[in-house]
């Protein structure tokens, strides 16, 4: 090292001090992942200078957070009293913790809005009065063990995480080696198939992995992580997760087994949901006698390395790459992911999975960007004839089918993903019963549906406006309606339910690849008065797809583990229009109304016919370059 | 290692012994690159069993060579007498060397055919009489320092090479890890441009680099060797060179600087030509004050690692890849390269540079293969309007232009690649003068043209039938015609020539990017009676292309190294039809008559318009999938 080398962070501090008035004192600067944290002994003066932080952020081209330096904080006991006096009682504070190492105080409350105050006025008051920086979390209106566990775990790992975030920050803000001369995308999975989403986005400086999922119905088919573009895994600069579904997230923990030690960027709800789904994934593998690809310890590693980013926050994830998440309308926390590369050199958007129009749960997917040249686009319903019924018609149809079954004393069973479609159906059924379109009857939630629903209530900001407000008022929270009953009594309870009054059962797995839905088919499948209703996409190779296509003899393991055949006699129906995915028209509209219009579209996440037909459709409709690649191909943009 | 592990070569030997009659004795088996060498104490008995070796080769699926074991050889002095008595005097033996380590005797002769005898009868006799295995080389009819140097160097390195070949053989014949599930091709250069040819062909088991050239007129633009698909360079399994031109070979020695220690497969003439051109490349770089990318030591490393393969010999280069070279008709030793991958899984052909129809020097490119699904195809003259004149018309045209200039007391200067076009022109001019269509006048060869010509005469088997015969008879060898004069007197001689009688000058470099052609332009460029005739492709960015496009003011460095402008007043003409490349029609015919027809064609080695237009032309004409990729893209086949 030459003697001219200075600590780059020291250089940032010098630069910062040059820019601020002399009466502001900076005691320390530190990276916390993408953010630069400025510790000051004069926090009030910082706060008084209107626009100073914004100006510094723009000069240094970094996100900046100012916190009072150690030593200016009140003693925690005293601070606690002060804080409680500043926050209205209605806020419902459930937890208050002080972290001397960073000068932060964590405030968990049922109504975080009241903690924050109008235009964050209460937060500012707290900082100025007690010298601690408040961090506010919502206490979920429905208790969620996932949310609790994740938060507790992260609190417990707080010191380790601080070191991790500092290391990541230094990597992000390193001097780049040179200009961006090219951008490449390599497909490690998810091409001409639905499943094992995984893409490498690379530049001469940086390698980012986007998603790392499994393939439902084809356990052996995992992303091609062994190819040179992804290796060494340990040297990847960042991992980005578009949403929690297992076909995007299942194998992320594996990266840590392979030595990865860097950040995973995703939204806050996705972080919690992926943990829930991955632990269940391990559970299912164990129950089916398969060797899980990683231990649950790796899920904790992954959580420890997760950096959450809100929709709309432009975030540096490498010297030459800025990431921005946008609402995708598909499931809670799902993101359309925008990469701005090399200071105006190129912009790539990964759609992830999207729903183009508004649903009961979410606003439609965002498709408005400062710039976009390349779009990597899902094509689940990309065939020419993949048009779904209107949601209104679908709802009427579903309600009619359920009403009919109930009138015949039958029971309706609906295989559903725990995350997304279940909550949408709960909203439909709750409304229909409230408005008298359906007789009120029990709706049993089996598998992780209740838990997933609780997570939704922890992040109402990610839901549609009207729904958010209803969730925040207990008496109107549709998810708390009495008819929703958790199946928490195991097989015995299922037998009781199956032998009892007409009801509706929502059960995982959504593609009938295992889970409690298997028990329900066994208990209810023999009676022609019962009804099985598919409401979501059934991937090729799954039992759900086979039943949907007419198969009625299905393999079954009895209690003793022997394999039997079960003949389904119940009525089988499919109701489209509830998918979390855009249909062909929605996909086309998403691309066609995208602003600006991308120059090239890479169609993935659909079977061969879907990606092919969607790709040529887009070309014919809009004249852009389109591709339906195979796995293991690399595109280069410049 | 478990105790069950056996030496794989020992296993091969056991297998071999199971297959042969008991009276045949195998004393040792060893790999020599792709070949399995069987040393036997009973060589005569091996030779007597008709078809045994062929049968063994087919059972073991390896190329097999049988050599007498150590101990069965006569003493060299005695053997030498015996050998000389078996070979007719006419053969013109110039060298005879014994290699006890392998039991081989090297015989260099002016007429190798007489050493070999009818159906190799003389060779067999030698083996049986003296116990040494003869290896026969042709003594070139024109002395070539390159051929001499390469052969001497390889003889001197013979022991090292034996170890190297054994190591390579073990790698080639290792047990593969599993089935071939995919084949990929990554473009490291040569896309939408002419130059820096470099491709990675990879399978789950193997990575092969094909070509590694520079880009004429753009020294900084080298193949993207730094991308993951090519790294670590040291772990590449094999390198294959299609032909010696620098846009394919210039940077091969660099691989050894980066730690590569494996084989380079190419034809024998390409091995010699590439050495010649690379050393000149270093020379030019030094003269122009650029830092050469590697030292000449690396060229020696490369030679030491080169394994030559004849046209038509199917050669294992990895457990899952077989390589076969075919005549490409472009320059001496140039090869259309066929890869058979994974036991019938996929077949990829790299055209390299081709000439589709016969020329004076070569037969047209081969396009008949057992199987081919994917073709990586040159597109130099791929534009819709890239039609060249018939060679007959071109020759008439050229002869007329030269005759006219001579009649006006002017001199003709023709920039030409040392390798290929120069020899073609020599044949045209020699014939025209012999037949009286042109007055006989001196034809000066400047740069490495004479040396390159001598190399052609060392490998007449690679030339067209009629030409081969003429070369083998001194009195008819067109390259030995009196009017051909080597410029071996430096600048002084050039000044004399320029001030003297009308003549023709063939000089490198072929694209006027440096070399003696610069001096000729300086000496002859000011006189409007002189003529500059372009006969070859001029790449974008080269001075040749700029002059061809009408530019007459050209930059020049005088002796003192200062930069000056030179104004060209001589007449500038272009005569098409002499290119070493197929024209648009030839390219189309090559693909259209290929047997079998490839399913997809990747168009490279042409500027953007050429690759684009050729790619859409092929699609429209033949309906196959076609691509005009960018550098750094990866295709996957399966
Ligand atoms: Zn999804
Ligand atoms: Zn998905
Ligand atoms: Zn999906
Ligand atoms: Zn060439
Ligand atoms: Zn070339």
TrEMBL record, chains A, B:
Residue span, Metallo-beta-lactamase domain: 195-417
Signal sequence annotation: none
Family matches, as SUPFAM superfamilies: Metallo-hydrolase/oxidoreductase
Metallo-beta-lactamase C-terminus as annotated region, ranges: 580-638
Record note on cofactor: Binds 2 Zn(2+) ions, which are required for nuclease activity.
Gene3D superfamilies assigned to the protein according to its UniProt record, in alphabetical order: 3.30.300.20, 3.30.300.230, 3.40.50.10890, Ribonuclease Z/Hydroxyacylglutathione hydrolase-like (3.60.15.10)
Binding positions for Zn(2+) 1 per the UniProt entry: 243, 245, 330, 353
InterPro entries with a match to the protein in the record: aCPSF1, Beta_Casp, KH_dom-like_a/b, MBL, Metallo-B-lactamas, RibonucZ/Hydroxyglut_hydro, RMMBL, TffA_KH
GO molecular function term, any single one: DNA binding
This protein's record includes keyword Transcription: yes
Annotated region (KHa), positions in chain: 6-73
Binding positions for Zn(2+) 2 per the UniProt entry: 247-248, 353, 605
NCBIfam families in the record: arCOG00543
Protein name: Transcription termination factor FttA
Species whose genome carries this gene: Halobellus ruber
Source organism phylogeny: Archaea, Methanobacteriati, Methanobacteriota, Stenosarchaea group, Halobacteria
Gene of this entry: fttA
């Amino acid at each position: 090292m030459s003697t001219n080398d200075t600590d780059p962070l020291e250089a940032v501090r010098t630069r910062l001090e040059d820019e601020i008035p002399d009466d502001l004192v900076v005691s320390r600067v530190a990276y916390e992942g993408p953010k630069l944290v400025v510790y000051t002994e004069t926090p009030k003066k910082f706060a008084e200078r209107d626009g100073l932080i914004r100006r510094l952020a723009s000069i240094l081209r970094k996100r900046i957070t100012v916190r009072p330096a150690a030593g200016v904080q009140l003693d925690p006991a005293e601070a606690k009293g002060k804080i409680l006096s500043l926050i209205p009682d209605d806020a419902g504070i459930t937890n208050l913790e002080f972290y001397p190492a960073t000068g932060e105080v964590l405030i968990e409350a049922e109504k975080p809005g009241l903690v924050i105050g109008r235009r964050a006025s209460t937060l500012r008051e707290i900082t100025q009065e007690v010298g601690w920086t408040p961090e506010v979390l919502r206490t979920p209106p429905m208790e969620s063990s996932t949310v609790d566990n994740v938060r507790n775990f992260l609190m417990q790992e707080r010191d380790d995480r601080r070191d991790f975030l500092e290391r990541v920050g230094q990597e992000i803000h390193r001097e780049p080696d040179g200009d961006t001369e090219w951008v490449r995308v390599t497909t490690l999975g998810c091409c001409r198939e639905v499943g094992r989403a995984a893409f490498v986005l690379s530049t001469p400086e940086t390698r980012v992995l986007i998603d790392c999922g499994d393939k439902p119905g084809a356990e052996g088919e995992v992303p091609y992580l062994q190819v040179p573009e992804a290796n060494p895994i340990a040297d990847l600069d960042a991992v980005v997760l578009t949403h929690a579904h297992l076909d995007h997230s299942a194998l992320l923990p594996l990266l840590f087994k392979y030595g990865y030690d860097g950040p995973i960027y995703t939204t806050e709800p996705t972080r919690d949901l992926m943990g829930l789904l991955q632990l269940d994934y391990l559970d299912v593998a164990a129950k089916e006698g398969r060797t899980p690809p990683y231990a649950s310890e790796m899920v904790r590693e992954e959580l420890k390395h997760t950096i959450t980013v809100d929709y709309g926050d432009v975030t540096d994830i490498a010297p030459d790459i800025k990431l921005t998440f946008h609402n995708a309308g598909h499931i809670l926390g799902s993101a359309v992911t925008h990469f701005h590369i090399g200071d105006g050199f190129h912009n790539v958007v990964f759609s992830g999975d999207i729903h183009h129009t508004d649903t009961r749960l979410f606003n439609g997917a965002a498709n408005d960007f400062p710039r976009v040249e390349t779009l990597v686009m899902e094509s689940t319903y990309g065939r020419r004839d993949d048009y779904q019924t209107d949601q209104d018609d679908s709802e009427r149809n579903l309600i009619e089918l359920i009403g009919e079954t109930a009138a015949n004393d039958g029971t309706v069973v609906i295989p559903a993903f725990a995350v997304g479609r279940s909550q949408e159906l709960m909203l439909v059924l709750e409304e229909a019963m409230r408005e008298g379109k359906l007789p009120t009857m029990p709706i049993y939630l089996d598998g992780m549906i209740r838990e997933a629903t609780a997570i939704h209530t922890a992040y109402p900001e990610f839901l549609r406006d009207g729904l958010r407000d209803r969730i925040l008022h207990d008496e109107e929270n549709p998810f708390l309606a009495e008819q929703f009953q958790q199946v928490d009594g195991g097989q015995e309870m299922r037998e009781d339910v199956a032998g009892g009054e007409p009801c509706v059962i929502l059960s995982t797995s959504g593609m009938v690849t295992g889970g409690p839905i298997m028990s329900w088919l066994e208990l209810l499948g023999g009676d022609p008065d019962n009804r099985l209703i598919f409401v979501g996409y059934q991937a090729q190779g799954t039992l759900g797809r086979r039943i949907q296509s007419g198969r009625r003899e299905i393999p079954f393991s009895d209690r003793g583990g022997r394999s039997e055949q079960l003949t389904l006699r119940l009525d089988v129906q499919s109701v489209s229009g509830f998918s979390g995915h855009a249909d062909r028209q929605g996909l086309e509209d998403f691309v066609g109304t995208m602003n600006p219009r991308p120059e090239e579209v890479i169609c993935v996440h659909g079977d061969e016919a879907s990606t092919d037909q969607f790709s040529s459709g887009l070309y014919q409709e809009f004249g852009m370059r389109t591709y339906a690649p195979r796995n293991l191909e690399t595109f280069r943009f410049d």
